[in-house]
Amino acid sequence: MDMARTVLRRLIQFFLSFYPPPAPPPFVAPPVSNEDLEYADLAIIDLSKASTETGRQALAAQVVKAMATHGFFYVINHGYTQDQTTRIFSIANLTFDGVDAEEKKAYMGQSGAVYEGYKPRQTWRIEDGVQDQIEHYNVNRQVRKREHPVALRPYLQEIEAFSHHNHFNVLHPILRLLALGLELPEDTLVDQHTFEAAGETSVRFMKYYPRSEAEEQLTKKVWLKGHTDIGSVTILWSQPVGGLQILSPDGAWRWVRHMDNALVINAGDVLTFLCGGFYPATRHRVVQPPADQVGLPRLGVFYFSMADDDVKLVPHEESPVLKRVGIERLCSDDEAPTMEEWRKNRTIAYGSSQLIPSVREKGVEEEIISGVVVKHYN
Ligand SMILES: O=C(O)CCC(=O)C(=O)O
Ligand SMILES: [Fe+2]
Description:
Layout: H1 2-16, E1 43-46, H2 53-69, E2 72-76, H3 82-97, H4 101-106, E3 117-119, E4 125-127, E5 130-131, E6 134-140, H5 156-181, E7 202-208, H6 213-218, E8 222-227, E9 233-237, E10 244-247, E11 253-255, E12 263-267, H7 269-274, E13 284-287, E14 298-304, H8 320-325, H9 339-349, E15 356-357, E16 364-369, E17 372-377
Parallel strand pairs: 1-2
Antiparallel strand pairs: 2-12, 3-6, 4-5, 6-7, 7-14, 8-13, 9-12, 9-14, 10-11, 10-13, 15-16, 16-17
Helix pairs in contact: 2-5
The structure holds 2-oxoglutaric acid and fe (ii) ion.
Fe (ii) ion is lined by residues 227, 229, 284.
């Protein structure tokens, strides 16, 4: 029965592919900020050079350096044209502006342990009783695993292609560079991040709505508290509304500058686990956009990657690099969580758990997840 349904769906998809859907209502991105801000000076990785072994060795050295300094870098020449990227942002915007409240409710996540479908605004605690003003729509990389709102259905093929693109043309090449940086066989991390296995690597559309002056004051303009990402590598499709800041090793928050059709890449907790602290999860937050962009909504498109659910989060101690520099463990190998445990516990706790001020670090709050200290930064 399932088989018959799949064949029928494939047939329909095949015939529909001759009739491309109408363009989504165009999302016109606002101009970049002209404010004089302190920007982080991030490396630019030209991914078109990853097609040869020599190219990959050179890029791996750049990535190791970028990870040791800011923990963030740009990727350019990733294979999507500006037009393709613009169209994905239009589809992302349609997800929020083209679906009414009732339908959104029907496509909300069913569990606090996994991001799926819509997350309405005001579900995460920020500060002083103020909740977030962020709406998001999370799509598992296997896009057709779930149903989607009517407005998105004409674009599922494009979202599917986008998910594949992120996974195979961006995530995997980056994981190869990270493995090379540890002098591991190239596919060591790729093999732990398959497309087919059970897991929650996802595309996410995200929209931040401007907040009231009272909310801005109570939260000191913080829209999304300082954090590290739950997964391994986060791919952020650069967009012009500022607000993203990274915490540099010198303790200063610096802005991330928009670059047209570039990707902003950062490491999450899972890379810290798997790579024994060699690529530390990077600390970042989102604040109110700069003065000349105040009042604008802020639309984001992401690919949040995680290891396959059954991967045990222990370091690759066979790495010659880790043998030389030493391994930093977040917990003992015996107690290390699986990817599935880690993502579920982190997701349940996010924005709802009671955080405890750190006794060691100023401006840091902590919680314990799967026996590991998770920090939040103010
Ligand atoms: O909106 C952004 O630029 C960053 C969002 C973010 O850090 C996250 O969702 O984990
Ligand atoms: Fe993040």
